Amino acid sequence: MEPINPDQTYDIVDSEGTLVEEAAPQPETVLPKLTRGEIGKLRKQYITVQHPRVIGCKHRLDLKRQPTHRNCHKCWFAWFQNNKEVVATADEVFKNGHFELIVKLQGHKFYNYFTRFMGTVERLQQMQEQQRQQGQQEQQTEQVSQESNG
Ligand SMILES: [Zn+2]
After folding, report:
1. Fewer C-beta within 10 Å: the chain N or C terminus?
2. Rounded to the nearest whole angstrom, what is the distance from the C-alpha of residue 75 to the centroid of ligand 1?
3. Ligand 1 centroid from CA 51, angstroms
């Protein structure tokens, strides 16, 4: 038995077999004719895994593996940014005081760039916090001056 297609319409005939209503024509599926080059292009687009390039250094980055450009700070930074789980795990291990475990599991390079990355993240967070506090202070002084005016 054929699966029921809800979009399929049927010719409606009366008891004498006279056509009452004609079924809507099925939309034809038109497959575009592709040239060899176009097929190759599509294959590249959809099948070949193209690793994204890091904006700062134009290196290709495989997010599933540690950066191939072992000494490229930008690659590592982008890699950490896109491997939040790895970072979170390493951070937990680090905070528990087992930094040697990170080195053992991920290597020295990872450890070095990881601590640098975390330092940068911390600095950014501090800056954001400062800006937030400054914003609050400005709001407060604004409120005070409005109150004294009124
Ligand atoms: Zn790089």
Report:
1. N
2. 4
3. 12
